[in-house]
Amino acid sequence: MAQPIRVVFRAKGGALLHRASEEEVAANQQAQTQIGEKWKADPGIRFICYYASPGAGHYYIYEVDDISKVTEMNQDIWTNKDLLVEDYRFEIVFGNTEMDDFFKS
User: Fold this and answer.
1) According to CATH, what is the number of the domain 5-100?
2) Which of 10, 40, 87, 103 has the most C-beta neighbours closer than 10 Å?
3) φ/ψ (deg, to 5) at 69
4) How many other C-beta atoms are found inside a 10 Å radius of the C-beta of residue 77?
């Protein structure tokens, strides 16, 4: 069996989020929830932990069974017009369970 692939999804709302109306912010939050629920329901995608870095954005750590899952995740972000994301990226990284436990707490 192949090793799972560890992926970091980094996202930053930036000026798009700061200039948004209340309605746009609400639509953004709903879009984030829908995407999160979709990924949570996918057995090939496992959420590990989350952390935020001031000024740098939000970091979501996942493990995926196959690199094609990253392509699917990217499509979910790219095609959702309600998301207010100034910058985002997916990075394949090595994991560290001790750090995962730290950020989960």
Assistant:
1) 3.30.70.100
2) 10
3) -65, -35
4) 17
CB atoms near residue 13 (< 10 Å):
19
Quote the tokens at residue 102. 């730290």
Q: Which residue has the tokens 């939050």?
A: 29
Q: What is the pLDDT of residues 44-93, one digit of tens each?
A: 999 998 888 877 788 999 999 999 999 999 999 999 999 988 889 999 98
pLDDT band at 14 (very low <50, low <70, confident <90, very high): confident
- Strand arrangement, sheet containing 5-12: 45-53, 57-64, 5-12, 87-93
Mind spelling out the 3-state secondary structure of the chain? CCCCEEEEEEEECHHHHHCCCHHHHHHHHHHHHHHHHHHHHCCCEEEEEEEEECCCEEEEEEEECCHHHHHHHHHHHHHCCCCCCCEEEEEEECCCHHHHHHHHC
Domain limits of the chain? 5-100
